[in-house]
Structures are given as structure tokens and as C-alpha cells.
Amino acid sequence: NGARQPVFVLVGGTGDLAMRMLWPSLAMLDQDGFLSSDLRIISVAREDCGTDVCVDRIGEAVQKRVGESLEAETLSRFRKRIVHLALDAAHDDWGDKLKAELGDIDKLDIVFFLSVSPSLFKPICEHIERAGLSKAPNRVVIEKPIGRDLATSKIINDSVAHAFDESRTFRIDHYLGKETVQNLIALRFGNIVFEPLWNAQSIDHIQITIAETVGVGERLGYYDEYGAIRDMLQNHLLQLLCLLAMEPPSAITSDALRDEKVKVLRSLKPITAENVQTSTARGQYGPGFADGHPIAGYEAEKGSPSNTETFVAIKAEIANWRWAGTPIYMRTGKCLPSRSTEIVIQFKPLPHSIFGAEAHANRLLIRLQPDEDISLTLMNKAPGLTSEGMHLQALDLSLSLIKAFDGNGDGKPPRRRIAYERLILDALNGNNAQFVRRDEVEAAWTWVDGIVQAWTDTHMKPQMYPAGTFGPVSAFRLIEREGGRTWND
Ligand code: NAD
């Protein structure tokens, strides 16, 4: 933005998200030379700790997160950029106080990052607007949850839209900042080999799993209102689905990409009371052992009965020419046996096997967590002699991104970037391609609301699964019901 001085205003600068993710991301961007030398960072929070104490806490948080990778010189430069303001953002005059700190606002290019509860977005944006701080090129970054259904998401989006138009509203889905998630676009549209096979004719089904080993912990108050479908599926799982299933965009520009993503969401076949029992599974963890600890179970942690699911699995279908008839199985949950995020593209069997049953169908596995790698299972001739015919053996053609990009050549894997680094950099640069557009949020909620309504209409309660197992029995039935399919556990 020409000669304007960049300013990053972090509202909620002393909070958990800020300390664990945002400050470390900013510091690493500074170290890697991505922050303009004149960038100022203003932390806004209720805590009246003063800039010195606040900056010390930030320094500790950054050390804790990126310790070894951080150079002392970076930290001292980074600390000098920061000013902390103790303000109650729900109070009337904070916009003016902020303005007084900012100086000549016409010479600034401000990114407001709201790392606070969405219930504060409205008063905060009103104050920003009233103080004249919401004009272009200034923009706002907001975090999930963007509502707990379509109606509440509209209220939140409206409260921001009054101050910032859509092109200057950056909705974070931190999965979009992950290297391997970005790589899905490169894999699909940077290679010619996959795209001709990327359809219902060649693909039997797709599986997307986001498994967590942890329970709800201290987030119980929030989580009990949301559950797995709202907390993980409406946003992260559906974003992964969009990138996998979308048509090739005509360019890698933000609207071309997001136009294609929203079409996928709008093509999702509604799940209704008629098919909800065979298309979804709901679970809640009970007593067991997960994440290295004995677990008392969700209701025991809550201290009262709960109808909230901590696990959800869904068989989705995309009603368009490319995907009609290809089931897409998605699942996510807490207190599962392993922490992993992976996508399985299961290809169809050969139309005619000259090798009998030895020829297994090809499978592409894209793993995002714990390690980032891609492997394609191919059939090979088993080496050696046989007296009759040849035998086949499945082998993986694999691409370990960590090994492939050992940038320093020191044998150590390169530092894994925090997803927020890319997203903050994009927000500073005004590039909103990896942020979620309002129509995407609304299309995703429309589909999810239908499922939640069908659960209510059919009184479908979560089934208990022991902590440390891969969800309730119904989740296995969901996939096993059809043609020998199983989860990739
Ligand atoms: P938190 O409660 O730890 O921190 C909230 C921050 O906001 C604190 O700095 C607090 O001082 C500040 N704040 C609260 N009310 C304020 C007011 N009236 N005026 C000025 N400052 C005020 O919350 P968090 O866990 O950091 O989460 C922040 C947001 O990010 C929430 O919307 C949350 O849902 C979302 N989020 C958090 C995480 C996470 O891992 N913590 C992950 C995804 C989304």
C-alpha cells in the first residue's frame, strides 16, 4: 500500500491463541525478513500489564514455541515493535484511545486481528468504524467460531460487514495455512497425471480423517455448545473436501479459487431425517485411556449428562457430474488412538485383472499430520523366479516432504512453520485467497444445519466409545455397509 506504514493491531494480545500461535508466528516472520522494517505491532487486551511486562510475556511465549529456531537478535528487534494498550474493547472510547496511539491514520495500513470471542466482534468493529479506522486499505482478520449455525453466522458476519467490506474481511481457517493443505492445490493442478482420473469413473471413494488424541480439557464450556460437527467438520473438514473436489479454477486468484470451493459446498447432497441414520455416526468418549492418560469420560468431566458429540463421521455425496455416486467419508473426534490428519483417495479396481485377485486397486494417501507425506500404492511384480506365472506385490511410491526439503542439508528436518505464519503474512499483504469467503461459511452451515436438524428430528444421540478407540461402532458400520470398504486405520 504505497508509502503507508503497516500496523498490526492484535486485539486479545494476552490470550491463549495469541501466546501459543500468533506472537510466535509474527516473531518468525520477523526473523525470516517478511516483516517490513517499519511495521508496528499494537497489542490490545483487558489486562493492564504495561508494555514492558506484556512484551516479557510475549518473549517467553515465543521462546517456548520456537525456542531453538529463534535468534536473539530477532527477539530484541521484534520486542521493539510492540506496544501494549490496556483497553476494554467493549467500552465506548477505545477506538479514540487507539487512534491517539496510532497517530496520523491516513498514513497507515492497518490489519486488525480479533483474537477474542466473536460476541465482541460487533462492539469492537463499531468502535473501529466510529474512530474512522475501518476505511480501506485497513482490514480485519477474524477467527472461528463464525457462529454455531447459519443464523448466528449471519449475525456475526453482519456485525463485521458494517465496518469492513467483504474483500477486507479475512476469515481464518487455520487448516488453509498448512503447507500440505496448500500442496493439495499444487498436487492436483500442477500435475497432469491425477486430473484425468480425479472423478467418479476412476475413484471408488475418498476418506478424510482428522483424529485428535486429546479430550476437550479446558474448552469444555465452549465445546459443549458446539460438538465435533460444528467445531471441526463445518470448517476444517469441509475446507479439505472443497480443495479435493473442486473443479480446476481458471487462475490461482482468490475469487477464482473460492468460486470453485463454494460450488462444491452447494453441491453437497442434503442429509435428512430419511438417511441420517445411514449417512452419519455420532459418538461421545467414555472412560478409557488416551493421550497417555486414563480418561474419566466426557460426561464425567462435565459432571452432568450431555448430548454433545465428541466424534462425528459422515458419508457425504457431491451431486455433480464429476462426483455423483462417489462417497466421501469424513470423520473427526477427540480421545482417538492417534493424532493424525489424512486423506485417502481409493481408486477403483482394474476393469479386468490378468493377475486375478492379486491386483489391488491403487490408493493415494496424503498425510498432513503427524508427518507430511504423500504415497501412491502401486502394484509391482514381486521380484524373483516362480515356476508358474508372476506374483504381484503392492509397493508405495512415496514422497516425504520433510526429506525432500531438507533445506540446510544438515540431515535435520526443516522447521515446521506454524499455519498462522502464512495467514498473517497474507493478511499483511492483503492477499485473501487462503481465507474463507462469507458465501463459503454460509453454504457450509446450510449443509451442517440440515444434519443437526435431522439428528434432532430422529432423536439420534451420540453413542459412547471408550476413550482411545476410533469412535463408536456406528462409524465402522457407516463405511463397511458398502462394498468391502474400511477406514484406513
Ligand atoms: P482467551 O480468553 O485466552 O483470550 C482472550 C483475549 O481477549 C485476552 O487477551 C483478553 O484480555 C482479551 N479480551 C477479552 N475481552 C476483552 C475486551 N472486552 N476488551 C479487550 N480485550 C479483551 O481466548 P483465546 O483462547 O485466545 O481465543 C480467542 C479467540 O480465538 C476466541 O474467539 C476463540 O474461540 C478463538 N480460537 C481460539 C483457539 C485457541 O487455540 N485458543 C483456537 C481457535 C479459535
Automatic annotation (TrEMBL):
One of its GO terms (cellular component) is cytosol. Transmembrane segments: none annotated. Residues 9-183 form the Glucose-6-phosphate dehydrogenase NAD-binding domain. The keyword Oxidoreductase applies. It is an enzyme of class 1 (oxidoreductase). NADP(+) binds at residues 46, 144. It catalyses: D-glucose 6-phosphate + NADP(+) = 6-phospho-D-glucono-1,5-lactone + NADPH + H(+). Gene3D superfamilies: Dihydrodipicolinate Reductase, domain 2, NAD(P)-binding Rossmann-like Domain. Pfam families: G6PD_C, G6PD_N. The active site is at residue 236. The keyword Lipid biosynthesis does not apply. Keywords: Carbohydrate metabolism, Glucose metabolism, NADP, Oxidoreductase. Substrate binds at residues 174, 178, 212, 231, 334. Pathway: Carbohydrate degradation; pentose phosphate pathway; D-ribulose 5-phosphate from D-glucose 6-phosphate (oxidative stage): step 1/3. One of its GO terms (biological process) is pentose-phosphate shunt, oxidative branch. GO terms for molecular function: glucose-6-phosphate dehydrogenase activity; NADP binding. Its EC number is 1.1.1.49. It comes from the Bacteria. Residues 186-487 form the Glucose-6-phosphate dehydrogenase C-terminal domain. Belongs to the glucose-6-phosphate dehydrogenase family. Catalyzes the oxidation of glucose 6-phosphate to 6-phosphogluconolactone. This is Glucose-6-phosphate 1-dehydrogenase. It comes from Asticcacaulis benevestitus DSM 16100 = ATCC BAA-896. The lineage of its organism: Bacteria, Pseudomonadati, Pseudomonadota, Alphaproteobacteria, Caulobacterales. The gene is zwf.
